[in-house]
Design brief:
Length: 524
């Protein structure tokens, strides 16, 4: 009973263990106290051996589950609404908007006197770049003027002779610097004309209009016919003497020509090897030309003298008394010779006209040379590939003496692969990253796609894929480095991200899984 009162839950314990309770009842009374004490200890031990069951409330588990579901829903909702830029990457380099300007010398063979710029120097339009030596141009101008004026005076003289104008004095003829063969023709023509006037006066019996000398000749016609043979013989001898002198001069000229040609042939290989100045070879070539011209002149003079000897010998054979018929025949013969001489003079006039035209060209070129002794910058930009390194440089008009890279705004010329060209169009925004300036530190430059090629370029040694050329107009021409603006330079390599469209984050993931799923179709 005490056990039940002291432990309210003891009945439950005893009910659950009937064997132990029955053992206590049938025990002896003497052991009752001892048994009860042991029973109480056992009951207390059993009470401590009873397991404790803790019940957790449902609120936290429900809240965690709802939180996971909520975050998932919000993430999916954000991914379906939030948009990201989709970009196409293209590489290339910065180029000036204008083409590189090659600068050539105004004339061929111009000699540099002073250089005012150097490679990499920035210049403005009109700045003085190079000054050429005017000495050669001035000499060329004077020579061209002299040649032209001389040819013009010669033609005036020839035309006056053909027109039958009054004879020109010997002093005036000497100033014309007529070629010897042409001078001989004019003298022969004047002689023939005088003879015709004399013959016509003798036929008419009127010598009043003749000069005193011609009158004397007319009065002494008979004596003249008798002495003609002796005069013709003297003329032949004189012509032969002149021919001998000319032949000696011709032989000497040919030797000089051979020597000049040999010297030129020896100098020409040295010019190729760079062992001699070009000016010396050109001078020797000019000497060869002058020697050859002298040989040609003497050969023509030899032919003229031979012709004169032939004429004199013919006159010597015809030493007969002059009669009316003979006078008429001589007039006709002289007229034929005069016609032949006139034909040659007309040909000389035409040749001179051609040389005058050529001299006019040379004169214009020489004037242009003097006018453009200073080479100035046609555009703003930076000097590049300067060929002239110092004074004395001989410029070649067919090759640029320097180049100028335009100093206007730079554009990015990039190449887009043919697999990325689908969504690309003009006007799209572009993020341009200059490879020389890391993006993580210096950022990028905004730009706009202004041009896209209409056809793909084939692969080459640099790009081994088909590509479309494109141009990007950038917003800035400098990069800020530690507070300083560093200007961009032509030729810098760039990477351009062309923003083609905006896509949701969810579509990017679904596209990824779609590609993975589609790739399973090719698995065998």
């Amino acid at each position: 009973m005490n056990g039940q009162n002291s432990a309210p839950d003891g009945s439950t314990q005893r009910d659950s263990n009937p064997q132990k309770t029955g053992a206590l009842v049938v025990g002896s009374k003497s052991d009752l106290a001892t048994s009860r004490s042991a029973e109480n200890k056992m009951i207390r031990a059993e009470e401590f051996d009873q397991p404790i069951i803790l019940q957790q409330p449902n609120t936290w588990s429900r809240a965690i589950a709802m939180g996971i579901v909520g975050v998932t829903v919000l993430t999916i909702g954000w991914a379906s609404v939030a948009k990201m830029d989709e970009a196409v990457m293209a590489t290339g380099q910065l180029e000036p908007q204008g083409a590189v300007q090659p600068i050539q010398a105004p004339i061929n063979g111009a000699v540099v006197e002073e250089i005012y710029v150097k490679d990499g120097q920035r210049v403005k339009q009109g700045d003085l770049l190079i000054r050429f030596d005017p000495t050669a141009g001035a000499a060329e101008l004077r020579a061209a003027e002299q040649i032209r004026d001389s040819l013009v005076r010669q033609n005036q003289f020839y035309r006056s002779q053909l027109a039958g104008s009054s004879p020109v004095s010997v002093a005036e003829i000497s100033k014309l610097n007529l070629p010897p063969e042409v001078l001989s023709l004019t003298k022969n023509r004047e002689t023939l004309l005088e003879e015709n006037r004399l013959y016509q006066a003798q036929l008419a019996g009127n010598t009043a209009s003749l000069t005193p000398e011609q009158q004397i000749r007319a009065q002494t016609g008979l004596l003249e016919s008798q002495s003609r043979a002796a005069a013709a013989q003297a003329k032949v001898a004189q012509a032969q003497q002149q021919l001998s002198q000319t032949q000696a001069q011709l032989q000497s000229a040919r030797k000089s020509l051979a020597i000049d040609e040999k010297i030129y042939n020896d100098l020409a290989p040295l010019l190729v090897d760079g062992g001699i100045a070009r000016v010396q070879v050109v001078r020797q070539e000019q000497q060869v030309i002058e020697s050859r011209a002298e040989v040609n002149r003497l050969e023509q003079e030899e032919q003229r003298l031979q012709y004169a000897i032939s004429q004199a010998q013919q006159e010597l054979a015809n030493t007969v008394a002059v009669s009316g018929k003979d006078l008429l025949d001589k007039i006709a013969e002289n007229n034929e010779q005069i016609a032949a001489i006139d034909s040659q003079l007309n040909k000389v006039i035409l040749d001179n006209e051609s040389q005058i035209a050529e001299s006019e060209k040379r004169l214009s070129q020489a004037q242009l040379t003097l006018r453009y002794q200073e080479l100035r910058a046609p555009v703003d930009g930076i000097v590049f590939d300067l060929q002239a390194k110092g004074r004395g440089f001989v410029a070649n008009s067919s090759e640029p003496i320097l180049k100028i890279v335009p100093g206007n705004a730079l554009v990015a010329e990039v190449y887009i692969t043919n697999k990325d060209i689908g969504f690309v169009s003009e006007g799209m925004p572009v993020d341009v990253r200059v490879d020389s300036f890391p993006f993580s530190e210096f950022g990028d430059i905004k730009g706009t796609l202004v041009n896209v090629g209409s056809d793909a370029l084939p692969p080459d040694q640099i790009y081994n894929y088909y590509r479309f050329p494109a141009k990007v107009e950038i917003d800035r021409q400098a990069i800020s480095v530690r507070g300083n603006e560093v200007p961009l330079q032509s030729g810098m390599s760039v990477s351009a991200n062309i923003i083609t469209r905006k896509r949701t984050v969810l579509s990017i993931f679904t596209d990824f899984f779609t590609r993975k799923t589609d790739s399973l179709k090719n698995v065998r």
